[in-house]
Amino acid sequence: MYSAAPQVRVLIGKSLKHVVVEGMDLQKTIHTQNKYQQYNGRKTISFNCLPPRSRGKVSMLKDPLLVASLSSPTGLVSWGAQKYQGELQLLASPGQQSCDLVNSTSMESYITTLLAKEMNGTWPVEALKAQAVAARTYAYDRLKAHSKLYHLESSERDQVSGTFADITEKTLKAARETDGEILVGPSGRVAPAFFHSKCGGKTLRPDQVWGGVEEGYRSVNCPFCQKTGMKNWEHRIVGGKLNQMIDKVLKRYYSDTISQGEMRLMPDSLKNSELRLYVGDRLHIIKKSYLRNLTGREILPSNNFMVSVKQNDFHVKGYGYGHGVGLCQLGALELAKRGYNYRQILSFYFPRHKMKKVY
Hints:
Elements: E1 7-16, E2 18-24, E3 27-30, E4 35-38, E5 42-48, E6 65-71, E7 76-79, E8 82-85, E9 87-92, E10 99-106, H1 107-118, H2 125-142, E11 152-153, H3 169-176, E12 181-184, E13 195-196, H4 206-209, E14 233-237, H5 239-253, E15 263-265, E16 274-279, E17 282-287, H6 288-295, E18 305-310, E19 313-318, E20 327-328, H7 329-337, H8 342-349, E21 354-357
Parallel strand pairs: 1-11, 13-20
Antiparallel strand pairs: 1-10, 2-5, 2-7, 3-4, 3-6, 6-9, 7-8, 9-10, 12-21, 14-19, 15-16, 16-17, 18-19
Helix pairs in contact: 1-2, 1-3, 2-3, 2-7, 2-8, 5-6
């Protein structure tokens, strides 16, 4: 357990050719040369991430290498037009002549900037507080990746964090009033808390989407997001195109390939997390989430969909937006508008989880 908010290292820039950092009274450490320097007043520092061959064999690196760290007594350092709280760290990328940029900051500073990106900084505070606990839980779990030079990416792969400019009065209040609070499973073990934009009527369990089982998750019926956000969606997929999509899924996730013959789809419904189909006389069973992963969000915006056959083509009808696991953000918005507090919102979407204060 931490006695204070831990530091979290967030990857904010990848494969950069040049990095320009600015700030007041900058403090610079070049770790590869054990050199430290402090500047007075406003200073701009440029890094060239395309080093001459004489500077070393960057391409021989097996792991990211911490090259430099920059911070300011003001607590803010600028990269481009954005100000970041904490420290900016420059990494040498393995196998490339480029840099990655990491923002090392306190967990609570991270949460205050994230809320406006992953939700909306103007939403009711109780919805933002629910999001704060879920996002903090996910980040806290990722701290276990201590062997890496960063814990999370600022992207949809993990969570989209913001900058100093994204902090609002409400995001600051939501972070402060849930300071150090996370969700744990029934056994008390820390595990990631997932969230998404709109479930479309029913949330999913992690095993239905990614295949891995996470303690405590249940699928819950959620009527609260129906009237907001993205409307129900429909797409037509020609038979040959679906064959190609199915073949990619089989090769990627099942070490298999599509058999020869006519494709016949077994009856499907929204309750099914898998598609069952025959190609020739062979049955294939694939996760719908795997199909979405390879197809993309333009065709399959969520994992909550069903497939039927119409005039020799395949008709896809779906609901919601996102992977569908855990906290439904638009559902949380509606619940907050109805007077639910953040603990009630979290207990609805995570009915078997418990709240725990870890610092």
